[in-house]
Structures are given as C-alpha cells and as structure tokens.
Amino acid sequence: MYGDRGVGKTSLAKTTCKLLLHEILKGGLFVEKRCDSQDSFASIVQAALIEAKVDISTREKTLTHNEGGDAQLSVGIAKASLSSKSEHKTTANHLTNTNSPSWVAEKLKDCKGIFLIDEVDAIPSLEDKKKIAELIKLLSDFDSEFKLVVVGIATTGSELTAGHPSVERCLKEVQLKRMSDDGIKKIILNGMKQIDLIIGDEIADKIVDISAGFPHFTHLVCLKCAEIALVKKIRHINFEILKQALVESVKDSEGVLKHAYDSTIRLLSKPQDYKILLLAAAYCKIPEFRSSELKDKLVESYSINIDSQVISRRLASLVKIKNGSAIISRSARGCFRFIDPRMPSFIKMSSGVEDI
Ligand SMILES: Nc1ncnc2c1ncn2[C@@H]1O[C@H](COP(=O)(O)OP(=O)(O)OP(=O)(O)O)[C@@H](O)[C@H]1O
Ligand SMILES: [Mg+2]
Predict the structure, then answer these.
(1) From the CB of 11, is ligand 1 less than 6 Å away?
(2) 287, 266 contact by CB (below 8 A)
(3) Which among 21, 35, 249, 298 could bridge 304 via Cys, Cβ 3.0 to 4.6 Å?
(4) Which atom of ligand 1 is nearest to 176's Cα?
(5) 6 lines ligand 1 (CB under 6 A)
C-alpha cells in the first residue's frame, strides 16, 4: 500500500490486516514492524522469525576432545583433526542466514499469518527493499499462508520494492489517496457527537477545507476546538473557538512543516506579500498549479491583482531557496507544486485566523 504522507496508510493497513486474519486466514500470527533508517532486511525479518519461534541465535557449538587416536571430526562447517593426548576445540556456527530471502522464506513458509512491514520508504538500501520483494515472491511460490503487507510513502508501488521485476505478479498494489471531503466531515461530526459538542456546518466545512483530505489535521483542529470549548464550558463550537483552535494547532503542528514555512518566510524580503501568495497557492489545484491559476486565485479570493511577471519572479525566488527548507518546487515550465503535500493545510491553518 502506497500513498502520500499522512493519508491514513498505517490505520487502513492495520484494520485490513486484522480483518484478513480473522475473516480469510481464520487465525494466525500478526507481526508488525515499523522500519527506520537503521533497518536492513535482516533486522526487519527478525521480528517475524522471533514470532514464528525460529531460532536465530548465532550461537557457537564447542566440542572439546582429548581422546587418543588420529581421528577426523567433522561438525557442521568446520573440521578438525584429533591427535592423541592433546585437547582440541572444534567450533561450528549455527547456520542462520537472516540476510538471505531464501533462508527466511524456508523458515516462514509453513507459518500462517500476516507480516505488516510499515514505513518501508525509510529503509535506506535499495538492495534491502529488493530482498523484501524476493521474500514475497518466494513465499508466493511456496503457496504459503504467510502473507506480507508492505506499506510506505511512494508515488508508485514499485518504489517500495525497488522495481524488482519478477515480483509484480505476486503483488497486489493499492494506492491510498487522500480522504474524501465527506469522509473528513464524518470524522468531525461523529467525534463531536461522541463528546456531546455541537458544531455548525459552516465551521465543519472550514475544517474540511483546511484538512484537504489529511485526517491528521482534522483530528488536530477538532481536538483543539474541543479543548477550548470544554475549558470555556461552551457546547457550541463557534468561529471564535475555531480561531483560537487554529492558533493552538499551528503551535502543535509537526516541527518539519513549521520549520520549513517559518524559515522560508524569514528568508524573503517582503514576508507579508509572500504569505498571501502562498495562501492563494494553497487553494490552487493539487498536486500542481500554474502561475496563471495563482494570479486568478489572488484576484478572486483576495482582490489582489499582481502582474504575471511579478508572480513568476516571486515563485522563482521561492523555488530557489536552498538550505533544505524550500517549500515549493518547479515541476515543469510554469508549473509548481508544494514539496510536502501537507504544506497547504499548514498554511491554511496558520493564515486561517485572518482568513476567516
Ligand atoms: N479513516 C480514518 N478515520 C479517522 N481517522 C483516520 C482515518 N485514517 C487515518 N486517520 C487518522 O489520521 C492520522 C494519520 O493516519 P496514519 O498514521 O494512518 O497515516 P499514514 O499515511 O500512515 O501516515 P505516515 O505517512 O506519516 O506514516 C492518524 O491520527 C489516524 O488516526
Ligand atoms: Mg504510517
């Protein structure tokens, strides 16, 4: 399963795995591994091997002999000759090879269950991603009831398996797109109802707009609204509460979004002009917008008529920002996109106070 950051991949994957385990496999192991930049194929499969009770300790067998004669001893991969009256030690490594997809597949093929490997995009080595693909293929060839669910941020499924060619037949790729506005609104209305708060359509729609299909922002803004309403002992979420909630949400937002936005604005000579430009861009089409669309949006929403050349110049300055904090990139001539797809939601939240 692949998709943009924060669209709900982990939540859907976990729910689906549990459903598959109960409804299709009728029981079995559920193993979950969240990868990080330090992980390799061996460290990832370790979780499943331990759950499957496979002995993966790299213990050494040591045999000591002090008998007479000139016998040959052969244990595992090591050999030693024995001569009389002297003591010899023979060591043999227990043959574990958690680095090899075929070894791992052999050990897991008779198990039943699901192995959820999440955050696969964080694995640094392409070779390790390919090995995961190989493991899927080998288990599939064994017709095993041990299934792998691989989840990560990507624009295509093959990014997660490093483009391994022969694995595609054994894969079912699912792209998780952003949530629909109706889905987001249901989160708001159901949640507020559960804690006995009332929210009007206008305010709920504003939160839907800010969320832009990312449930994380819905939860964040609603949580802040609810906290403020409960402290003030007010049951109706009004615009005043929403305004304060947006300020609190920005404070609690992920550091990477806040840092990228703040440092970009700080680097520019007319921050207020750029803030409005970015806000208008946040309301343009996704994933790409054209500078002409941005010009129209500025007129339509903020009655600001800026010369096309000035807009192009400002967009060029935003693209040029280095030191890793650029928030906009040029995808084609005259076409731009936010590097982090969640940035428009953050911008709407931080400008939302004046915007309402
Ligand atoms: N269908 C849903 N209904 C309500 N909330 C949801 C739904 N799906 C996801 N969420 C919430 O949205 C937030 C983000 O979801 P999740 O962590 O599953 O996304 P993700 O795509 O795995 O993110 P990342 O790319 O950062 O790993 C979580 O707080 C989660 O509880
Ligand atoms: Mg996730």
Answers:
(1) yes
(2) no
(3) 298
(4) 21
(5) yes
* Ligand 1 atom with least separation from CA of 219: 29
Of 113, 133, 121, nearest to 9 (Cα)?
121
Question: Are the C-beta atoms of residues 113 and 28 closer than 8 Å to each other?
Answer: yes
Q: Which domains can be identified in the chain, with CATH numbers?
A: 2-55+97-176 (3.40.50.300), 63-93 (no CATH), 181-251 (1.10.8.60), 255-355 (1.10.10.10)
pTM recorded for the entire structure: 0.82
Pocket of ligand 1 contains residue 5 by CB under 6 Å: yes
Query: Are 33 and 115 spatial neighbours (Cβ–Cβ below 8 Å)?
Result: yes
Q: What is the DSSP string of 99-132?
A: T-HHHHHHHHTT-EEEEEEE-GGG---HHHHHHH
As beta bridge partners, residue 80 has 73
Are 51 and 29 contacting, i.e. CB atoms less than 8 angstroms apart? yes
User: What are 240-287's pLDDT values in tens digits?
Assistant: 999 999 999 999 988 889 989 988 888 888 888 899 999 999 999 888
Could you give the CA distance from residue 114 to residue 148 in angstroms, rounded to a whole number? 6
Q: Does any ligand 1 atom lie closer than 6 A to the CB of residue 10?
A: yes
Task: Residue count of the chain, please give it.
Answer: 356
Whole-Å CA distances, 256 to 121, 261, 275, 311, 348: 17, 9, 18, 26, 16
pLDDT at 223: 98
What is the Å distance from ligand 2's center to 135 Cα?
22
Decide: 180 in ligand 1 pocket, CB within 6 A.
no
Instruction: Give the model confidence (pLDDT) of 283-299 as tens digits.
Output: 998 889 999 999 999 99
Is the pLDDT at 93 greater than 60? The verdict is no
Q: Is 8 in the pocket of ligand 1 (CB under 6 A)?
A: yes
Q: How far apart are CA 96 and CA 282, in angstroms?
A: 53
- DSSP letter, residue 179: P
Mutate to test the pocket of ligand 1, among 1, 4, 7, 11 (most ligand atoms within 8 A of CB): 11
Q: How far apart are CA 62 and CA 73, in angstroms?
A: 12
Highest mean pLDDT among 70-79, 135-144, 312-321: 135-144
